[in-house]
Amino acid sequence: MNLHSLTLHELNGKLKRHEISSEELTESVFRRISATEEKVHSYITPCYETALREARKADERFKTREKWSSLLGIPIALKDIFLTQGVLTTCASKILGNFVPPYDSTTVKKLKEAGAVTTGKTNLDEFAMGSSTENSAFGITRNPWKLDRVPGGSSGGSAAAVAADQCITALGTDTGGSVRQPAACCGIVGLKPTYGRISRFGIIAFASSLDQVGPLTKDVTDCALMLEEIAGYDPLDSTSIDVPVPSYTSYLNGDVKGLRVGIPKEYFIQGMQAEVEQALKEGIQVLEKTGIGVEEISLPHTEYAVAVYYIIATAEASSNLARYDGMKYGYRAPAKDLTETYMKSREQGFGPEVKRRIMLGTYALSAGYYDAYYLKAQKVRALIKKDFEDAFRKCDAIITATAPTTAFKIGEKTLDPLQMYLSDIFTVPTNLAGLPGLSLPCGFDSEGLPIGMQIIGKHFDEATILRIAFAYEQATEWHKRKPNL
Ligand code: GLN
Fold first, then answer.
1. What's residue 66's pLDDT?
2. Taking a C-beta distance cutoff of 8 angstroms, is the pair 110, 116 a contact?
3. What is the predicted pLDDT for the residue at 297?
4. Strands, sheet with 169-173, edge to edge from the N-terminal-most edge strand
5. d(CA 272, CA 109)
6. What is the domain partition of the chain in residue ranges?
7. Are 451 and 444 in contact (CB under 8 A)?
8. Angle 301-302-306 (CA atoms, 0-180°, nearest 5)?
9. What are the C-alpha distances in Å from 483 to residues 5, 40, 43, 147, 356?
């Protein structure tokens, strides 16, 4: 039996019954990393030594009689955007190429308290800007299902690591789809919780009104277990919200009778891959058979979501990234004076996509254009949010495809940023509205690439999403397939 290929909940039982040790499990995961990393390249910084130390500590804790967290001894990968004390944290940027944080993000602190084992820091698009993990200063990540394809992005390293069994679960962040879209591309489960559900303290900021932490897992149960551990109010994040964290796993009982889901007609667009549309329609039929009511709904402002997102996200990014100036921390270019230090450090430290976004955002916020772009975008954002509020008066959740196509070829969209931005068309509206959304596998295309179905819920109603996702998973076998690496 390969321990690395099991789920969190399967391993949890084995660890608690002392059938295996965390050290054995961690060794198994690192053997898998050694065997596959050359092909996939999920990690920027694997942490073998510290992982083994943490595993041994977890094994010590298993010897006591205390009540163990479900994450105790479980190898978990972190997108390289989470601050980790004493461990290099690059955000896939040259400008943070030498940055070792002096403290842990709140999520990492929670994982450590739970006794999880950190396998390492995974690859991403620089500053989480992208949908393919090609915008990394540290090389590209390949899709474990087909090595000439992207794993999605920006949390592509985390998604590929989970799909390739190079960790048991992983964490990513989602500003416009960066957990759900790579989950869809890699055939796994990815959840973006409600804005404010998980602390953003110690997450390198991209667009602060949209960013949210989310788990990437092998199945729905693992997703619920992860969320239970990392959700909750944090006084260090003024946008985190103080609402109780339910026991999400207690909702996973397969009983979904009486729930209603809406299918937004605006989410069937021109240019959508026919196989994706087909898989989604079949997925909806499966849901109907579980006893869920299905009806068509309308989200009329959907067509503006990508434009609104790329104005707001770039505006916020241009402000958040002002701190990387070559003076405070990170990369500093040799220069003759202060101005030249600023200019050269940024010129050499940032990649082309990050520069493009800083320029777009600065433009949208500048005096003459603020009203026409930024303010207008905020108004349309309110309309998009209202669309969802209206829809949720009729249904408990909304079902869509996660992305319009399966994983595209490496290099296919790098020269055309607009094409790249359009891969976020189904995921950005939920970020703009602050709603939770989950992606889970609902089929494969003729090339053997996974297809994702998205379930969007009401604010703080992750429980209903997970309940529906679990019922769907019970009725299908997609989540059991593994890439042949
Ligand atoms: N792909 C989107 C972008 O490039 C979303 C990224 C994200 O969610 N971090 O902005």
1. 84
2. no
3. 98
4. 43-46, 117-122, 75-79, 169-173, 213-217, 189-192, 437-444, 450-457, 397-401, 260-264, 293-297
5. 41
6. 3-260+468-480
7. yes
8. 115
9. 11, 12, 18, 10, 35
Q: Which CATH number fits domain 3-260+468-480: 3.20.20.190, 3.40.50.360, 3.90.1300.10, 1.25.10.10?
A: 3.90.1300.10
Angle (CA) 328-329-334 rounded to 5° is: 90
Residue whose Cα lies nearest atom 10 of ligand 1: it is 129
CA–CA separation, 157 vs 162, rounded Å?
Answer: 9
What is the 128 CA–ligand 1 centroid distance (Å)?
A: 6
Q: What is the pLDDT of residue 65?
A: 82
pLDDT value for 382: 98
Which residues, listed in sequence order, are joined to residue 451 by a DSSP beta bridge?
A: 443
- Amino acid found at 457: G
Pairing of the two strands 397-401 and 293-297 = unpaired
Catalytic choice (154, 345, 423, 439): 154
Instruction: Name the active-site residue from 21, 131, 136, 178.
Output: 178
Digit-coded pLDDT (tens) for 274-322? 999 999 999 999 999 999 999 999 999 999 999 999 999 999 999 999 9
Known active-site residue 42: no
Distances (CA, A) of 466 to 127, 224, 255, 327, 463: 29, 7, 12, 45, 5
Among residues 347, 341, 350, 344, which one has the least CA distance to residue 320? 350
**Greatest C-alpha distance within the chain:** 70
Helix (H) or strand (E) holding 9: helix 8-16
Inter-residue contact 158 to 77 (CB < 8 Å):
yes
To the nearest 5 percent, what fractions of the chain are helix, strand and coil? 45, 15, 45
Please say if 345 is a catalytic residue: no
Whether 129 lines ligand 1, by a CB cut-off of 6 Å, is yes
Ligand 1 site, residue 314, Cβ cutoff 6 A: no
| Ranges in the chain, pLDDT < 50 | none
Q: Can you give the pLDDT at residue 271?
A: 87
C-alpha torsion sign, points 68, 107, 400, 156: negative
Span from the CA of 34 to the centroid of ligand 1 (angstroms): 29
Instruction: With CA atoms as reference, report the closest residue to 427 among 185, 145, 160, 105.
Output: 185
Write phi, then psi, for 475 (nearest 5 degrees).
-90, -5
Q: What is the mean pLDDT of the chain?
A: 97
DSSP 344-402: HHHHHHS-HHHHHHHHHHHHHHSTTTTIIIIIHHHHHHHHHHHHHHHHTTT-SEEEEES
Angle between helices 22-40 and 48-62 (to 10 degrees): 150
